[in-house]
Structure to design on (200 residues):
């Protein structure tokens, strides 16, 4: 069974002093870097999904285990139905729904408080492919969205969610708090914040 594999010679690490970081391999991202740098592309990384009928508490546990703050909701036919965020679950929405419908919080399902696809805004893959991170920043600052889905068309013109862009990923890439960026009044201020590493 293992004939096709071979043992690799393990080496000592006692004389290794340094850790490589991505900034040493590729230049630090800026507002002028391609927007695709910050898009989670589902052609490369599978989306983290959840059933619309799952309880919100189970969905929150699933988010934590997958290290994400948003899940894509699928219906019984495994079709895209909407999104749900950690903020939706941890905030008051679940409790309000439970009180309004006379049920226990444990009975609240994802479908009860998710944002349905009819209310989700997105960008086309073509828009993102021709944009910069600064364009995304300005767009998301203006709309107040924490997540934006990216839509493209597959063969035979079938529309699908190709990826997602999150404010937290932009913050991580630029090493600047998104909340600080929201406080900026002009694009020049945002550039200054990025250049100074988060100081207004």
């Amino acid at each position: 069974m293992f004939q096709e594999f071979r043992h690799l010679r393990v080496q000592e690490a006692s004389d290794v002093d340094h850790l490589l970081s991505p900034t040493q391999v590729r230049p630090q991202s800026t507002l002028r870097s391609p927007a695709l740098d910050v898009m989670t592309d589902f052609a490369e990384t599978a989306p983290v999904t959840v059933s619309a009928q799952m309880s919100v508490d189970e969905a929150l546990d699933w988010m934590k285990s997958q290290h994400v703050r948003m899940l894509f909701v699928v219906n019984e036919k495994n079709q895209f139905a909407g999104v749900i965020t950690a903020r939706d679950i941890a905030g008051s929405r679940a409790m309000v729904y439970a009180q309004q419908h006379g049920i226990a919080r444990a009975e609240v399902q994802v479908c009860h408080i998710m944002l349905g696809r009819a209310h989700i805004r997105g960008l086309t893959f073509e828009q993102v492919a021709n944009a910069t991170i600064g364009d995304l920043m300005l767009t998301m600052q203006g709309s107040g969205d924490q997540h934006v889905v990216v839509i493209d068309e597959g063969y035979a013109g079938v529309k699908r969610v190709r990826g997602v862009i999150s404010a937290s990923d932009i913050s991580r890439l630029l090493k600047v708090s998104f909340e600080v960026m929201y406080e900026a009044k002009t694009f020049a201020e945002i550039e200054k914040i990025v250049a100074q590493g988060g100081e207004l």
Summary: The two ends are 60 Å apart (CA to CA). The chain has one domain: 29-195. The chain has ten helices and eight strands. Strands lie at 40-41, 49-51, 70-74, 80-85, 115-116, 122-124, 147-153, 159-166.
